[in-house]
Amino acid sequence: ELSTMHGNHEELEKSKCQLKEEVANLKHHLETNMVDHSQIEQYKREMEERTRQEIRQRLQEVNLFLQTQAASQDRLEQIRANHHASLRNQLKHRIRDLECELDRIKSTQKDSIFQKESTQAEVERYKGLYLEEVKIRRCLANKLQR
């Protein structure tokens, strides 16, 4: 029994040594692979801060973009308004020019009609004088023949 127990004891010692080695390996593995909890918290805080800074930077970029876009929209509206005003002014000038041209044409037409009427009246007057002259000549010719 003593020798059996002695054999069991040796096996237990071997097992104990193996377990100690395994514990040492696990401790070493734990030390090398595990980071201190405070380091994890520190890393977490740094990441959160970096993320906040990135978000702030992105928000600033978005705000800048939106401001630029709003300014561009305002400039576009101003350009459109100026263009419409310019077109309105051009149309007003064109209408005024056309009205002046129409008045000039009407005036020229009236002058032409007046001139035609006065020429026609003069023609009628000369025609009357001519007929009267012809009548007087006939009378004189008749008197001369008698």
TrEMBL record:
InterPro entries named among the record's database cross-references: C144A/B/C (IPR040118), DUF3496 (IPR021885)
Residue ranges that the Swiss-Prot or TrEMBL entry lists as coiled coil: none
Highest rank taxon of the organism: Eukaryota
Domain DUF3496 intervals: 88-146
PANTHER family in the record: COILED-COIL DOMAIN-CONTAINING PROTEIN 144A-RELATED
Protein name as annotated: ANR26 protein
